[in-house]
Amino acid sequence: MIFVRHFSTAIISLALLAGACVAAKAADLVVIEARRIALRPGQIIDSTRPLVLKEGQHVTLISPTGATIKLDGPYEKAPDADQSRAVPVANALALLVTQRQARVGEVGTTRGNAPSVLPDPWLLDASRAGTVCLREGSEAMLWRPDAARDAELTVAPADRSWKAETHWPAGADRIVVQAPVLIHGGATYLVTLNGAQLAVRVENVPRILSNDSMRAAWLAGKGCEAQAEALLRNRQ
Fold first, then answer.
1. What's the CA gap between 180 and 47, in Å, rounded?
2. Which is nearest to 29 in space by CA: 69, 72, 81?
3. Are 113 and 126 in contact (CB under 8 A)?
4. What pTM, to 2 d.p., does this model score?
5. How far apart are CA 99 and CA 111, in angstroms?
6. Residue 164 and residue 153: Cα distance in Å, rounded?
7. Which of 138, 135, 119 is nearest to 231 (CA)?
8. Contacts by 52-60 with C-beta closer than 8 Å and gap 24+?
9. pLDDT tens per residue, range 31-41
């Protein structure tokens, strides 16, 4: 009887473990972009269940390996069946870099538009306009590529409801701005460095992303290419 009881307990434990593994595997795609459908960025999608997209609807998903899958309606099947269409994060980033270089080389643009190489993926470049990505719940660490001189820094939201000013001393390439309201994703800020004002869009990086491959894919998908490059480079 003792053997039977122990054997039954072991079988139940294995069944629960197997069920947990199946559940974890099923919910392994994260929405990064959705259009004309009631899905939100950061939402988890069960890869083994049919996803229904009508004409004109679109969704981009990230797999646990950091590969992105773009699906357009009409569509009605499990995304897991289309894993062969997934684009590895390194390939997606390489394409974005190529497109950026092509834009920089166009008439009327300058090499100065290219982003600087970040020493850390979670630094927010305060020296150029564009999009930066901030980890959910973390404070914004601003960075500048040239720290040789003192600088005066001002940060304000696009609606100018508040303004934070600080002195950026020579020799310091990064700084945390003590703002009245926490700088967060989903907003645009006006960053003024020594009188030169830039518009910087801050995108959120959700906690649900469980590894650097997924985070790099998210960064690349949101237009934070320099940060994605830094994350992949530091991972090597």
1. 42
2. 69
3. no
4. 0.82
5. 14
6. 8
7. 119
8. 52/76, 58/33, 58/34, 59/31, 59/33, 59/34, 59/35, 60/31, 60/32, 60/33, 60/34, 60/221
9. 999 999 999 99
